[in-house]
């Protein structure tokens, strides 16, 4: 087992050299990396917030805005239900967290009205005051909705931030309605704040063809029509009479990306619906050929083109005098999904690079001291074989660093601790092998047999210890957040590298030395 063919030696040596070369750019400053080939200069380890600085935002979910939106929807549903039950009503409106209406006559019984309202939603508190009713959402609905909104918001914020090109942001819940967002390497958070500040709720509406320009200007439209403003990108602010009930929702989108319209010579956003949305989109465009069709984003009309012909493929484009950046932003927002409630930035902090430099210096100093002590220990206790273990340990560190760069992982201060721990485990594996060799020598075996048995018999123990630690790293990654995941990633990568260096690299060096020197005793 100690005999290595020449091609195996060349392969293992080539792998080690490859990882050493790929790790070198991560150890250089930006000016030095600029002189390297492009594929090398771009393959570097991403540093976390604690190492390179960045921005921290504390976001608050506007739950009251969500409640107001739900109350507005509730008004429409109650209106339809009362009309369906032929119950006369008046002054139906939403204000102060409640829906209020009064009866026109006393024909309907209270029980019938309450039954009709609970058919709209079972999560309602209904209170009668004289001939008026006050309706609000109950406490159970409030609690459940808050929990769902915070979970949805965390997921959507994560999707929006990650698509901007940032690496491993820290996104954590704080309290009942706040989200802590830390983005490493982000010195100007304005663009990110603009993305997070938009709810990105897109709906598709038909226009009220009966509304004339004079009535629209005075705001005198029918009860089922709303007047919305255009987004102003066309060079003018225009008012649109939108039929309030949306015929299609943006939550049926499955893809959105930036494209280019050759006829207009401008960027556009191409979108695609799921199967249900495609069917509805085809039905709507078939039934309303020749009519305008408005696309509304966050209560502003992006565009309102006339349907020229049925669109049956479930896809279309959004145009509106976009720039490339604004088209990319809109596509990103649509892919990430709409926030259930608006987010407000209530606190903003910047972590300067000086703090990151201090953290790097402290981490690097601790790592160098730890590795130096290990090197001295191995040389003193195992001599030449200790030097072989030290070479394998250094290769292990370079391999871990290069794999972090190739996987585009983020290195944080706890991640450095993971690297040091995995390096220590690599040396520990060599200690097990060398101690087994000593035991075999004491049993009277030849140097060659003792070395071979040392590697063979220690392998099972080494594999067990590495597998159990690797499982622990996977659990940390699955259930941890932020820097805990960074520690888990570096530990898992280091464990895999440790197996390679301890079992193959060290064995190759020991085997090559024994085959070349044919020693009578092992120098351990």
Can you walk me through this structure?
The chain has 524 residues and is an alpha+beta fold. It has 3 domains: 6-52 and 353-517, Multidrug efflux transporter AcrB transmembrane fold (Up-down Bundle); 63-137, Hypothetical Protein, Haloacid Dehalogenase-like Hydrolase, Chain: A, domain 2 (2-Layer Sandwich); 200-338, Gyrase A, domain 2. The protein is 53% helix and 20% strand. It contains 15 helices and 19 strands. The chain has helices spanning 6-23, 30-33, 38-41, 49-52, 63-84, 110-120, 139-162, 190-196, 213-218, 275-287, 324-336, 353-406, 413-442, 447-479, 483-517, and strands at 46-47, 54-61, 89-95, 98-103, 124-129, 132-137, 170-174, 178-184, 202-206, 225-230, 239-243, 248-249, 253-261, 266-273, 293-297, 300-303, 315-318, 343-351, 410-411. A 6-stranded mixed sheet has the order 11-10-16-15-9-12. A 4-stranded antiparallel sheet has the order 7-8-2-18. A 4-stranded antiparallel sheet has the order 3-4-6-5. Helix 5 (63-84) crosses helix 6 (110-120) and helix 13 packs antiparallel against helix 14. The two termini are 20 Å apart.
Question: What would a concise description of this structure say?
Answer:
This protein is an alpha+beta fold and 524 residues long. It has helices at 6-23, 30-33, 38-41, 49-52, 63-84, 110-120, 139-162, 190-196, 213-218, 275-287, 324-336, 353-406, 413-442, 447-479, 483-517; strands at residues 46-47, 54-61, 89-95, 98-103, 124-129, 132-137, 170-174, 178-184, 202-206, 225-230, 239-243, 248-249, 253-261, 266-273, 293-297, 300-303, 315-318, 343-351, 410-411. The strands form 5 sheets. Strands 11-10-16-15-9-12 form a 6-stranded mixed beta sheet. Strands 7-8-2-18 form a 4-stranded antiparallel beta sheet. The chain has a 4-stranded antiparallel beta sheet with strand order 3-4-6-5.
